[in-house]
Design a protein that fits this description.
Layout (H helix, E strand, L loop, with lengths): L1 H6 L9 E6 L1 H4 L7 H8 L5 E6 L5 H11 L11 E5 L18 H17 L7 E4 L6 H10 L8 H18 L2 E3 L1 H8 L14
Parallel strand pairs: 1-2, 1-3, 3-4, 4-5
Length: 201
Amino acid sequence: MALCEGLGGGSSLLWPRVLLFGDSITQFSFQQGGWGASLADKLVRKCDVLNRGFSGYNTRWAKIILPRLIRKGNVLDNPVAVTIFFGANDSALKDENPKQHIPLDEYEANLKSMVQYLKSVDIPESRVVLITPPPLCEAAWEKECLAQGCKLNRLNLVVGEYASACLHVARACGTDVLDLWALMQKDGQAGMLHDNTDQTC
């Protein structure tokens, strides 16, 4: 009733925005049972959850596109929270997947660059959440690779190195961080995050 009365003056109704920025794990997170859909459901009538996932992207490409997603001075472009969820593609083995592979030091620098960009457009570190790449189920991913006629091109141990780099950036920049690589292995949440590109366990 109060909402209807408030609309009587013809004012716009705007909800705060939460922006999910990442690779395919984010892009497909609004599928049935996905983590993005679950978050949107929990925040319904509180926040609009925007999916800005880009399948196949690594941090090198993400850093380029971020300024086209969020600009300074527009209230609609100023989310109350931003998740940055990359690393699954960056951690691909260089010899087997040179297109997506990003060296570990560049991955770390790219994450820092994105946090710094957000700060420059008035989104402080306190509103940024970094998410580590999740653990890789090597057996399932190897089957996927063989089906496509290629060798295993990712290793969970290597993914762990990128997860550690993500944690390091969060500490250095003062952002919050969700350590999926550790949490999902600790809790044995196999298959919790799954899409056609990234096999996680």
